[in-house]
Design a protein that fits this description.
mainly beta, Jelly Rolls, six-stranded antiparallel β-sheet, dioxygenase activity, RmlC_Cupin_sf
Length: 116
């Protein structure tokens, strides 16, 4: 029997999360989100999340601070933030990236800033 759970999400109409991320397609065990044209600024407060994140930079630059290590993110690079790792981001120039999270970040309030 063919799989009928195929989901298509048009990013132009995607819902936004609490920090400005656009939620894209999601399945039972992973989801995608888009950070689009994020403005440069100060480092965000360090957080630990109850999900793993992998990302890919489309444009711009950011610095990922993870467990005391600084990683420069620029177009064409990808990264992993393991579940439970303390991390923060600082946008250095207007930044667009896509991320996938497992389990889905938006389920059960995993993406909410409160309680970080």
């Amino acid at each position: 029997m063919p799989d009928t759970t195929v989901i298509k999400v048009d990013g132009a109409y995607s819902p936004k999360g609490p920090e400005g991320q656009k939620y894209l397609a999601n399945g039972r065990s992973l989801s995608m989100r888009l950070w689009e044209r994020e403005a440069p600024g100060e480092s965000k407060a360090p957080v630990r999340r109850d999900y793993e994140t992998v990302g890919y930079v489309i444009s711009g630059q950011a610095e990922l601070l993870i467990e005391g290590q600084a990683v420069l993110l620029h177009p064409g690079t990808s990264w992993v933030v393991p579940k439970g790792s303390e991390h923060s981001y600082r946008i250095l120039e207007e930044f667009t990236a896509v991320e996938a999270t497992t389990p889905p970040a938006e389920v059960h309030s995993r993406d909410e800033p409160a309680g970080d």
